[in-house]
Amino acid sequence: MRWELSFKNYPSYHQLMRLDKPIGIYLLLWPTLWALWIASFGVPHWHYLLVFTAGVVLMRSAGCVINDYADRHYDGHVERTALRPIPAGKVSPTEALQLFFVLIIASFLLVLTLDKEVIFLSIGALLLASAYPFMKRYTHFPQIVLGAAFSWAIPMSFMAVQADLPIEVWILYLANITWTVAYDTYYAMVDKDDDLKIGVKSTAIAFGKNDLLVIAMLQLSTLWLFAQLHVYLHWHWPMTFALAAVATLFLKQLWNCRQRDKTQCFKAFLDNHYVGLIIFLGLFVEYWLY
How far apart are CA 83 and CA 75, in angstroms? Predict the structure, then answer.
């Protein structure tokens, strides 16, 4: 394979990695910070903060690159994605693969600064990130794979800090999966008509007319799982207020999307950044005060 990456084409790589659209970084970063704050009782070591934050940016970028490579024969037929770098001819498929491997190698070098148990867990992150883009061809539930991928930093964070995977890891992991499937279903609702035409599968298609009902059930499950953590970890009023605020945001999203307007569905997806932020602020104040 001939080396095709070029610094001259960085603006197109920047777009391919979605660095101009950081919502994915936020949605991956907040659960990572939740885990670091809980695992370290509110005082995470600077090394872990640096490694995991940089890892979020690199792995989210790698995920976008491999997603566009996997969708290169589909994106040109979808209005929202037709101008992405690969279908627009700005980046070749070979360049995309090479950029993906560069990002993965950079991520792995970061992980090498952590314990061997975390290095072992990082293999799961790579497999999930690589598999997700191809799942939409085989299952109507690729969002579950995305949720697993976006949640994998949670066990990695606990393993790095505590060298253990206690029960709260898996409660938080499940909470993040249900939240991710909910917000990415909003995202899939935007592309539903195009996906039906080109044969791409999603939860928005699978849930059909019950899409908002299932989203509500997923959001309720997220709140219930956080309520279990609230009791198990003996949280106080900061997390109570945070979860109440999150519940309010969930209700607002459902109400605004009641007509399934694409603009509102996409806005609901974007607004989940504030869900993650509010939970993090609740955890920050919780462990600062208690």
Answer: 8
pTM, whole model, 2 decimals? 0.94
Please tell me the distance from the alpha carbon of residue 81 to that of residue 88, in angstroms, as a whole number. Answer: 9
Euclidean distance between CA atoms 3 and 226, whole angstroms: 47
Q: Does domain 7-289 have CATH number 3.30.470.30?
A: no
The residue written with tokens 């790095």 in the block is 160
Question: What letter would DSSP give residue 137?
Answer: T
- Give the integer Cα–Cα distance in Å for 11 and 271: 27
Residue 260 φ/ψ, nearest 5 degrees: 60, 30
Give the Cα separation of 226 and 283 in Å (integer). Answer: 12
Which of these, 229, 197, 237, lies nearest to 74 by C-alpha position? Answer: 197
- Tens of pLDDT, residues 17-53: 999 999 999 999 999 999 999 999 999 999 999 999 9
> Which residue, 27, 92, 37, is CA-closest to 271?
27
Q: Provide the residue ranges of all domains of the chain, joining segments of one domain with +.
A: 7-289
